[in-house]
């Protein structure tokens, strides 16, 4: 038995002191091939420091062995010594048989550094030099997947699957392809692949993608089942709750929707979008006070979220709480964060407060985007009538009646104005 084998046996038996002695004897006495094998075994067992010692010893003896340089570069990357890794990789010539492998390792290094363009360049160069190598195609696909460039990932995964490669490096390519299709909105293609994965082999993210795919295909019953399965296995997966609630809403099961989103609140109380969805569903359920409570909580968490701000403003307007709406929106006006919908809400609030100049200004701002909105036009016409601006009243009434010609009351008002 060689010293290398003895060292491995001792390591397996937990005899660390004896292992260290045998390891040194192996370094001094075993053949180069045996030492290389020992280094690979130790690396696979997580004892990379000893692997590094062997590779460095061998490199001194074989200074032109590029395979050893790349192995040492990989170990340096594992130890976050990027400069050392780059130094080893730079020693591999473009004419070396190991150059393609060095490009692959370089790509990994640059990706860990966040230098994605350089990483991609290295992989594309490797693909150009070895166009029929599945490992490179897989590496490119994984690069695009992890950097969320799913359109490019799809083509590469599809090519590998068509060639008969369904798994590589313990990665399920069918799963990757299904998720990639879902991420680019090709849900019909996505579901065909995602449904091939056995539930026991799905992680939480893939379960979510399948449920999300059903949701986007408007198959809400399957979506509810899939989201519920995910909730039961991973209740902390808070992203599922708004979609589960919306699935119930689409099936007109508002009570179930409210229950589902309240479960989400219990799981994640710091997600403003869950509070927002809870507010919207509470409104559907006729729970107006509860809706405001949820929306205000969402705004407390995310004060700059304009969607939540708008929902609160709409709530105040629909409940006639114009002074509360002014208190909500006037600071936003000061910050110049504004849109036509909020201008309209402000106009109504200023009108109620008797601040006609400010109301008129906001009606004008809102007109830029709401000039063909019947609700806006009707309120604006009534406002202009109230302040005695007959020309603006007639102009606004005409636009309104073009859209709602059967409103007899407003038509009569317009006829009065014409006859003045």
TrEMBL record:
Residues in the signal sequence: none
InterPro entries in UniProt: CellSynth/LPSAsmb/PSIAsmb, TPR-like_helical_dom_sf, TPR_rpt
TPR repeats (start-end): 204-237
Keyword line: Repeat, TPR repeat
Name of this protein: Tetratricopeptide repeat protein
Organism listed in the record: Lentilactobacillus kisonensis DSM 19906 = JCM 15041
Organism phylogeny: Bacteria, Bacillati, Bacillota, Bacilli, Lactobacillales
């Amino acid at each position: 038995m060689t010293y290398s084998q003895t060292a491995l046996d001792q390591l397996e038996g937990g005899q660390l002191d004896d292992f260290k002695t045998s390891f040194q004897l192996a370094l001094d006495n075993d053949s180069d091939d045996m030492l290389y094998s020992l280094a690979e075994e130790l690396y696979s067992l997580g004892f990379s420091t000893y692997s590094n010692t062997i590779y460095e010893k061998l490199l001194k003896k074989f200074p032109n062995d590029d395979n050893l340089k790349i192995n040492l570069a990989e170990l340096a990357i594992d130890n976050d010594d990027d400069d050392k890794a780059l130094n080893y990789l730079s020693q591999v010539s473009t004419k070396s048989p190991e150059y393609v492998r060095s490009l692959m390792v370089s790509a990994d290094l640059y990706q860990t550094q966040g230098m994605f363009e350089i990483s991609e360049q290295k992989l594309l160069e490797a693909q150009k030099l070895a166009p029929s190598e599945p490992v490179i195609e897989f590496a490119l696909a994984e690069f695009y997947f992890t950097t969320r460039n799913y359109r490019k990932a799809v083509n590469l995964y599809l090519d590998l699957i068509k060639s008969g490669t369904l798994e590589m490096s313990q990665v399920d390519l069918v799963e990757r392809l299904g998720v990639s299709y879902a991420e680019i909105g090709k849900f019909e293609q996505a579901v065909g692949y995602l449904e091939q994965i056995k539930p026991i082999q799905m992680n939480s993210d893939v379960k979510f993608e399948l449920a999300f795919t059903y949701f986007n295909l408007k198959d809400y019953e399957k979506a509810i089942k899939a989201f519920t399965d995910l909730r039961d296995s991973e209740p902390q997966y808070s992203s599922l709750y708004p979609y589960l609630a919306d699935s119930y809403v689409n099936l007109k099961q508002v009570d179930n929707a409210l229950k589902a989103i309240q479960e989400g609140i219990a799981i994640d109380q710091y997600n403003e979008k869950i509070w927002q969805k809870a507010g919207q569903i509470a409104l559907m359920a006729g729970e107006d006070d509860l809706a405001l409570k949820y929306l205000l909580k969402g705004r407390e968490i995310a004060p700059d979220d304009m969607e939540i701000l708008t929902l609160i403003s709409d709530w105040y307007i629909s409940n006639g709480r114009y002074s509360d709406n002014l208190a909500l929106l006037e600071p936003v006006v000061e910050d110049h964060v504004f849109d036509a919908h909020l201008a309209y809400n402000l106009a109504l609030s200023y009108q109620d407060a008797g601040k006609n100049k400010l109301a008129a200004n906001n009606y004008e701002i809102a007109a830029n985007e709401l000039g063909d909105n019947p609700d806006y036009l009707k309120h604006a016409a009534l406002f202009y009538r109230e302040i005695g601006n007959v020309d603006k009243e007639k102009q606004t009434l005409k636009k309104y009646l073009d859209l709602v010609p059967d409103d007899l009351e407003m038509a009569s008002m317009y006829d009065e104005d014409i006859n003045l």
